[in-house]
């Protein structure tokens, strides 16, 4: 068998990711060649509820495309997101370069049990499935459902499942998209509502399926009511904190005006981080402590093994930030985040996780 | 991940002797033949374990490949030329030729191969990206 050909697709100023989890979509066409890999996501926290707005973008001749996104908790609702939110966030950064409650669903998963399908829905041409399970179980489910995992997927799925056994699998039906009039590069925004107490941004998933000589480029935007403490900090290879400042009123107002975004508070803190790392260096996630306790979780950052079912459980060693007078004194009531990929070089091996098989069922 | 790590093939482990099964009670079992051995290869996170083994020339090894991953793998035994052929090849399934076998996700498969001459013989998986990822090993025949 031979490796999938991977044309590089440079996509400028497009948001990438899914979730605090960023879901860069690893999308592959029926002939095994990738035509476009790009996903746009906003995740925000308010009063213990996290809102993800993720846009899956693609272009292909037909067939099915898929990706998988690790999530910090179990969504209680999955619906079509507003179209304006992601565009507005990208525009905000283009010129220049929670209090959270525990989820109602027990996050612990039996690693040996089959993956449990918690929710299935369809948003336009996207078939979305929320899964709960260990890395092996989720991988088996994916394989049984036509996904083709890259060779590093088993380890990476375990990496996430050991902390949060919740994943979102998205299957993009290109034929259905065409029938709906979607054009090349169009995206379908998806809004996930997720009660969680532990904000973290999956970064390692961005390197999934990539070769050592490739580079992962992504922009990460955080919106919090306080200036957040982050782990890892600038010392992490390939991660740079570019900006930290109060979000503009116009930005928050614009976000608030979009469908399903009425929860956006009046004041938030904007942090902008840039990821430019080799897959080998990108072995961490981004833990966020927006409570003012200045204790981002090492586990949530992927720097320590162990389940993250509540956040802030291990202190982790904050790297700065912390209380700065920002916010209103409440404990991190809101956090929003967007992963944006600017100039993203995309490959054929599922940046976010999974590749589909060919139409005839053979591996792409 | 990837090549750097993959290239780290270590661990020299003596082969198991599971194939030297003897039977019968009351009869002295014959000494295990050095020409027949069974080696169990565990696969986890797209890597063989052990990744380096040693056998004597003339030994026929029965490989038992236990795949602990949720993705399919394969075992191809042969020199660099053989590995190159499979890396460029397009066979979806292996199992008919000695030293070549496909292993389904979570499954076990066996294949045999005779190491006739001294030298290094490679083990590899050539599903897309697996060889480059480091799913390879070596048999030292001496």
Topology:
The complex is a heterodimer of chains A (364) and B (142).
Chain A: E1 9-11, E2 14-15, E3 38-46, E4 49-57, E5 64-71, E6 77-80, H1 84-93, E7 116-123, E8 126-132, H2 135-144, E9 147-149, H3 153-161, E10 166-173, H4 174-179, E11 187-195, E12 200-201, E13 216-224, E14 229-231, E15 239-246, H5 249-257, E16 269-277, E17 286-289, E18 334-341, E19 344-346, E20 354-356
Antiparallel strand pairs in A: 1-19, 2-18, 3-4, 3-18, 4-11, 5-10, 6-11, 7-8, 8-10, 9-20, 12-17, 13-16, 13-18, 14-17, 15-16
Helix pairs in contact in A: 1-5, 2-3
Chain B: H1 2-6, E1 12-13, E2 36-43, E3 48-49, E4 52-55, E5 59-67, E6 73-78, H2 80-88, E7 100-103, E8 108-115, E9 119-124, H3 130-133, E10 136-141
Parallel strand pairs in B: 1-4, 2-5, 4-10
Antiparallel strand pairs in B: 2-3, 5-8, 6-7, 6-9, 9-10
List the strand order in the largest sheet of chain B. 1-4-10-9-6-7
| Poorly predicted regions of chain A | 1-39, 96-105, 307-364
Average the pLDDT over all residues of chain B and give the rounded result.
81
Determine the N-to-C terminus distance of chain B.
32 Å
Q: Summarize the largest interface: chains and residue counts.
A: A-B, 33 and 31 residues
Classify the secondary structure makeup of chain A into a structural class: mainly beta
The N- and C-terminal alpha carbons of chain A lie at a distance of: 10 Å
Helicity of chain B, in percent?
A: 10-25%
Order of helices and strands of chain A: EEEEEEHEEHEHEHEEEEEHEEEEE
How many β strands of chain A by DSSP? 20
Question: For the report, how would you describe the main beta sheet of chain A?
Answer: 9 strands, antiparallel
What number is the mean pLDDT of chain A?
66
Radius of gyration of chain B using CA atoms only: 15 Å
* Strand-residue proportion of chain B: 35-45%
Computed structural class of chain B: mainly beta
Low-confidence stretches of chain B: 1-26
Apparent shape of chain A: globular
């Amino acid at each position: 068998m031979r490796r999938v050909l991977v044309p590089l697709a440079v996509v400028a100023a497009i948001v990438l990711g899914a979730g605090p989890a960023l879901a860069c979509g690893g999308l592959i066409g029926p002939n095994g060649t990738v035509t476009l890999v790009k996903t746009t996501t906003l995740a925000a926290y308010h009063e213990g509820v996290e809102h993800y707005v993720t846009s899956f973008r693609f272009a292909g001749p037909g067939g099915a495309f898929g990706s998988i996104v690790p999530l910090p908790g179990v969504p209680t609702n999955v619906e079509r997101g507003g179209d304006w939110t992601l565009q507005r966030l990208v525009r905000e950064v283009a010129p220049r370069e929670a209090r959270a409650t525990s989820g109602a669903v027990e996050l612990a998963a039996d690693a040996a049990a089959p993956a449990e399908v918690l929710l299935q829905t369809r948003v336009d041409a996207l078939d979305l499935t929320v899964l709960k399970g260990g890395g092996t179980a989720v991988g088996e489910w994916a394989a049984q459902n036509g996904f083709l995992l890259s060779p590093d997927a088993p380890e990476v799925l375990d990496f996430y499942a050991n902390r949060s056994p919740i994943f979102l699998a998205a299957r993009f039906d290109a034929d259905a998209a065409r029938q709906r009039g979607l054009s090349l590069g169009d995206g379908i925004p998806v809004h996930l509502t997720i009660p969680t107490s532990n904000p973290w941004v999956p970064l390692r998933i961005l390197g999934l399926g990539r070769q050592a000589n490739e580079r992962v480029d992504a922009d990460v935007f955080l919106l919090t009511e306080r200036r957040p403490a982050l782990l890892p900090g600038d010392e992490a290879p390939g991660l740079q904190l570019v900006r930290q400042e109060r979000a503009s009123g116009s930005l928050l107002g614009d976000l608030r005006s979009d469908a399903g975004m009425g929860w956006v508070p009046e004041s938030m803190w904007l942090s902008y981080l840039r990821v430019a790392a080799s897959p080998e260096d990108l072995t961490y996630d981004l833990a966020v402590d927006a409570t003012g306790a200045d204790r981002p979780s090492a586990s949530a950052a992927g720097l320590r093994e162990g389940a993250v079912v509540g956040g802030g459980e291990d202190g982790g060693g904050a790297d700065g930030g912390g209380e700065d007078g920002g916010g209103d004194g409440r404990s991190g009531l809101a956090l929003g985040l967007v992963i944006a990929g600017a100039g993203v070089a995309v490959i054929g091996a599922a940046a976010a996780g999974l590749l589909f098989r060919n139409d005839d069922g053979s591996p792409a | 991940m990837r090549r750097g790590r993959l290239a780290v093939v270590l661990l020299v482990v003596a082969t198991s002797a599971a194939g030297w099964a003897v039977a019968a009670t009351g009869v002295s079992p014959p000494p295990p033949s050095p020409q027949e051995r069974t080696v169990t290869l565990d696969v986890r996170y797209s890597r063989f374990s052990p990744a380096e083994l040693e056998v004597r020339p003339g030994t026929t090894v029965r490989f038992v490949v236990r795949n602990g991953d949720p993705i399919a793998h394969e075992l191809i035994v042969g020199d660099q030329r053989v590995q190159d052929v499979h890396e460029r090849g397009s066979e979806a399934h292996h199992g008919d030729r000695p030293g070549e076998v496909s292993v389904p996700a979570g499954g076990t498969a066996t294949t045999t191969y005779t190491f006739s001459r001294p030298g290094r013989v490679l083990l590899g998986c050539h599903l897309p990206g697996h060889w480059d990822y480091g799913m390879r090993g070596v048999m030292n025949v001496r």
